[in-house]
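Notes from the 1:1 (GR / supervisor)

We went over the backlog. Supervisor wanted to see one worked example end to end before approving the batch request, so GR pasted a single chain during the call. The sequence is below; no edits were made to it. Supervisor asked that the structure be written out right there so they could see what the output format looks like.
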Amino acid sequence: EVQVVESGGGLVQAGGSLRLSCAASGLTFDDYAIGWFRQAPGKEREGVSCIMLRDGSTYFADSVKTRFTISRDNAKNTVYLQMNSLKPEDTAVYYCNARVLSTDYWGQGTQVTVSS
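Structure output shown during the call:
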C-alpha cells in the first residue's frame, strides 16, 4: 500500500522559512515524481514544485521559483520543500503527491500560515 505523509507545516511570520517533508512508502519503482501542491481558501489547488526521483530534475511555479527549493533523499523516499522569504500569499494547505505510472497518491495535507 502506497502512503504519502507530509510534515513540517506551521505558523511563521512573513520573511521567515519553513521546511516541509514528504515521506512516501510502499513504492516499488524509482522512476516516479514527487510534487507539492497547495490550496488556499476559496482557490483551486495549484502546483508549486516537483522533482523526478530518478534524475533529480525539478520544476517550480513562477510565484515561488526564487524562494523555494526542492530536494530528495532517495534512501529515505523523502522529499523536502524548503520555503524561504515566505509571504502571506503562501498561506495554504500544502499537499504532497506521488505520481507513479500515471497513478496519483496524495497526502493528507499540512497547513502553512504566514502572518503579515
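Supervisor's comment: The chain has no helices and eleven strands.
Batch request approved.
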